[in-house]
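Technical note accompanying the year-one report. For the benefit of new consortium partners, we illustrate the data format agreed upon in the data management plan: each record pairs a sequence with a structure-token string. No post-processing was applied to the example shown here.
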Amino acid sequence: MSNTFVIKEVLDYNVSGYATSGYGNFLFSVDYAKSSTVQTTAERLPIRGGQGNYKIMDLDHTKDCMFNSVLPLVDIKALAVKLGRTVTTGAVSAPIKEILSASASNTITLSHTPLTGTLKIYKLSGERDLGVEQTVGTPASTVNTYSISTATVTLNATTAPQGTKFVCFYDYTSGTAAENIKITAADFPSFITITGRGLVDDDVTGLKVPVSFKVHKAKVKPEFELTMASDAATELAFDCDCYTILNANAEREFVDIVKLNDEAA
């Protein structure tokens, strides 16, 4: 195999919790990254002296290492790692807006049973504006009032002839398969370990050679943006600061990279 190779393919990687020995809990896997980058930086201190203050030598110091990745898919578990939270699964309160038309019996049927105190009903004005609010009362005798039984809302006959549209806002209890993640003020990311494999093309043989790598200890940067636009899909930045561990040679190591020549395809 040659010492020179071409790097083209994106890295596939796995993220687990950091443990001083072995691996912590597996968190998520990425085989869809748009890009993945291992970057190092350092500072160089020039030593100068003599007439003209010429450069005598340079001292390198303050080495840092970063792992950066762009995800074109938003994995809720990757988001949880950035938030320093775990994803919980189960029934939770969720908001909804519905536009419903009154039936011949002056009723509308909500898609869910609203939680107590959350239901707001407005007569639709035009195509999207809110008209007169409907309040709890005696719809049989009072205009702009309603009564509710489970998810069925009965409206006043004068206010809600058949086909009249109403805008409804309320919270309801979701199903038990709902995944919930919260953005809180006090939670921040924990240490993680990143392992993965990539492919390079050998310069001489042209064979594809797998490359394994391990970021021993890292912490993802908590900043992110979730842009919701009609003409572009959002991307999630998974950028990490890397930290050293003491390896078997008593060296302070950031990342271990292995070109697996014996496994060339």
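Partners are asked to follow this layout when depositing records. The longest strand covers residues 54-71.
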